[in-house]
């Protein structure tokens, strides 16, 4: 099977469900605990391109740090990306990457579509 990576937060039920789905389907994925090993700016930009979404669309806007950093008012894409690199808790999860494509596992059907 193709190389598969999951940006995973073991404390998140959606992320655990995505990891279980990969295991169920026999997919050996590289697990990146992105809170412990945050993506670089370049990695984040590459994933945004694969997802074909803006930085804001990848952000967890209900996190306290989002409000603390006043990101709702921020319009500069680069600054939003930098905020996620510096505060990986802001990154929506889980993200599964396969063959140059990516999917956010909310809903989990996105991952099923990516794998098929």
What can you tell me about this protein's structure?
It is an enzyme of class 1 (oxidoreductase). Pfam families: ArsC (PF03960). One of its GO terms (molecular function) is arsenate reductase (glutaredoxin) activity. By secondary structure, the chain is of the alpha+beta class. It has a single domain, classed as 3-Layer(aba) Sandwich (Glutaredoxin), CATH 3.40.30.10. 39% of the residues lie in helices and 14% in strands. It has 5 helices and 4 strands. The protein has helices at residues 13-24, 41-51, 64-68, 77-86, 109-115; strands spanning 4-7, 29-32, 95-98, 101-104. The chain has a 4-stranded mixed sheet. The chain is globular and about 40 Å long. The protein starts with a strand and ends with a helix. The model has no long low-confidence stretch (mean pLDDT 96).
Q: What share of residues are in beta strands?
A: 5-15%
Query: Are there runs of 5+ residues with pLDDT below 50, and where?
Result: none
Distance between the termini: 11 Å
Query: What name is given to the CATH topology?
Result: Glutaredoxin
Total DSSP E strands = 4
Mean pLDDT: 96
Helix/strand structural class: alpha+beta
Number of domains: 1
General shape: globular
Q: Quickly count the helices.
A: 5
Radius of gyration: 14 Å
Q: Quaternary status of these chains?
A: single chain
In sequence order, what are the helices and strands, one letter per element? EHEHHHEEH
* Spatial strand sequence of the major β-sheet: 2-1-3-4
| Biggest sheet character | 4 strands, mixed
